[in-house]
């Protein structure tokens, strides 16, 4: 029995954002979860630079790594979960976690990078509040 779905259905059904960028860093895939997380419609995001969601203070580091990956065809983040800040359309900062993978053409040259992204802003804020509360409790109750 064959599968009755295709790549587009799979990407659109995924609860995490799926963002694919070309070798120059232009967005070529932007699924409904990316719309929900970042606030940009598919039409607004396609063809735009990843600067759309990358905070200004992270851009130089991001583009240095991106260029190196395109040049070498290797990423040190293949299976690592990365946690970084990102930008929402309305300007507020998000805390995201994501994995990346390289996409290759027939000649094995890197043709793009796929990122599967989850918004962890709420979880991060909860952890920060818990750490603050723990610190307050420890400061108010010195150890014997």
What brief labels describe this structure?
single chain; 5-stranded antiparallel sheet; alpha+beta; 144 residues; 38% helix; 5 strands; 5 helices
Describe this structure in words.
This protein is an alpha+beta fold and 144 residues long. Helix content is 38%, strand content 26%. The protein has helices at 7-13, 32-38, 42-45, 56-72, 121-140, and strands spanning 17-21, 27-30, 82-87, 93-104, 110-119. Strands 2-1-5-4-3 form a five-stranded antiparallel β-sheet. The chain is globular, with a radius of gyration of 18 Å. The protein starts with 6 loop residues before the first helix and ends with a helix. The model has no long low-confidence stretch (mean pLDDT 88).
Mean pLDDT: 88
Oligomer: single chain
Strand content: 25-35%
Across the major sheet, the strand order is 2-1-5-4-3
**Topology, number of strands:** 5
Rg for CA atoms: 18 Å
List the helices and strands and how they pair.
Layout: H1 7-13, E1 17-21, E2 27-30, H2 32-38, H3 42-45, H4 56-72, E3 82-87, E4 93-104, E5 110-119, H5 121-140
Antiparallel strand pairs: 1-2, 1-5, 3-4, 4-5
Task: Summarize, please.
This protein is an alpha+beta fold. It contains five helices and five strands.
């Amino acid at each position: 029995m064959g599968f009755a779905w295709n790549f587009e259905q799979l990407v659109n059904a995924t609860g995490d954002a799926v963002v694919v960028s070309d070798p120059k860093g232009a967005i070529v895939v932007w699924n409904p979860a990316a719309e929900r997380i970042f606030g940009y419609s598919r039409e607004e995001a396609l063809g735009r630079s990843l600067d759309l969601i990358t905070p200004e203070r992270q851009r130089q580091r991001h583009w240095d790594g991106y260029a190196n990956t395109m040049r070498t065809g290797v990423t040190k983040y293949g299976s690592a979960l990365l946690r970084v800040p990102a930008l929402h359309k309305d300007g507020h900062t998000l805390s995201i976690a994501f994995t990346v993978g390289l996409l290759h053409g027939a000649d094995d040259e890197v043709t793009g990078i796929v990122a599967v992204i989850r918004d962890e802003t709420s979880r991060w804020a909860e952890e920060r509040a818990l750490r603050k509360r723990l610190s307050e409790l420890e400061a108010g109750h010195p150890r014997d």
